[in-house]
Amino acid sequence: MHRRRFLEWLAASPLLAQDSDPISKPEEAINVLEFEAAAKKALPPAHFGYMATGVDADATLRANREGFSKVQLRPRRLVDVRTLDTTATLFGSKLDHPIVLAPVGNQGAFQPQGELLAARAAGAKKTQVILSTMTNSRIEDVAKAADRPIWYQLYATNRWEVTQHLLQRAENAGCPVVALTVDTNSGRRTDTLELSKRFDKRPCASCHPEGQFLRRKAMFEGIDHKGLSTGNPGMDWKFVEKLRGATKMKVLVKGLEVGEDARLACESGADGIIVSNHGARATETGRGTIECLPEVVDAVRGRVPVLIDGGFRRGTDIFKALALGASAVCVGRPYIWGLAAFGQPGVERVIDILRAEFELVMRQCGTRNLAAITREYVKL
To answer: Which of these is catalytic: 97, 208, 225, 278?
Structure first.
């Protein structure tokens, strides 16, 4: 019985999804899901497993997608939608559309110049990008490649002076926004990743020397790594207040899933919230972020913008999130699939598809601008 359950779980893992004939060039893609098979073909098993994994049995990974099916659209007809306005202004930045490239670390595992290529794609498509603390490329180079101010995602370390250094470097690179990640401080279990390593015959130490993790990360250049951890299990709401006072950047709290924490974030001086479960890589809640969004928005009561990530694959997903109160959505795995398979052109094509799908559903539902997308257009 236990073996059968294990095999059923393994069969449902994204790592072992059945292969189809993958697309051979970005323009062949009908939707962003087609890039996943192309990425799997292009990557070593462990690298694909690192990107594909959730935590524990991947129940939350599945919930992130399944959650969208619980939100129905209520389209309005006979509205003149020949002209659309998809622009949004967030934290002083004007966005052409409410699609943000989420922070993804270790992009060098997917393309040698991962973050630089993704940033160039974002710049070409006038898309906001958030750079991970775990970037393999220097933040200064990524900011230049993006051709617009990038935002910075922060893992607060267990040493305040190092955290201050990271903040200052981001400020010096022109970042107007920092997103403090708060959902992985206690560690996690990434079973799909560990299983994927069994299919990878390369010696890990050849490119991942033991004890050299932070030495390969550009944000930690010149920093004493002894005893340094990027997790901070002692972090509390006073830490958010301390961070708020230590930087000129707008401070977002990334990784909230409940209304109680959203209220505390506002009270602690946060300038915004990202509803996130770390791409289902934090806690095995079994709950999709789109299901968490309404209670967070209700708790915030318009005091700060609310963004969201987790499982976004379609323009309808984006529309549903905005209807439930999000100001923008952050997309992660789809653009990494495009990056892994085709480099910069792959990322650009992913952005183009999501934007086209989103504009289509705006027209189909009779909404001419983002302000018109309200809860009356969805049914839970």
So the answer is: 278
**How many CA atoms lie less than 13 Å away from 142 in the CB half-sphere?**
32
CB within 8 Å of 145: residues ≥ 6 apart? 115, 116, 119, 120, 123
Measuring CA to CA, how many Å separate 280 from each of 13, 198, 239, 294? 13, 22, 24, 18
Question: What does each C-alpha distance from 322 to 7, 86, 90, 310 come to in angstroms?
Answer: 38, 12, 14, 14
Taking only the tens place, the pLDDT of each residue in 20-62 is 689 999 999 999 999 999 999 999 999 999 999 999 999 999 9
Minimal CA–CA distance to 178: which of 101, 91, 256, 265? Answer: 91
In this structure, what token pair is assigned to residue 344?
């910069």
d(CA 296, CA 286) in angstroms, rounded, equals: 17
Query: Phi and psi (nearest 5°) for 374?
Result: -120, 180
Report the DSSP beta bridge partners of residue 252: 179, 272
The CA dihedral of 371, 374, 377, 380, to the nearest 10 degrees, is 150
Yes or no: say if 325 and 297 are a contact pair by the CB < 8 Å rule: yes
The two most distant CA atoms of the chain are separated, in Å, by: 64
Joined together, the tokens standing for residue 39 give 């990425």
pTM: 0.93
375: CB partners within 8 A, 6+ apart: 323, 324, 325
Residue count of the chain: 380
* Per-residue model confidence as pLDDT tens digits over 60-115: 999 999 999 999 999 999 999 999 999 999 999 999 999 999 999 999 999 999 99
> Is 97 among the residues known to form the active site?
no
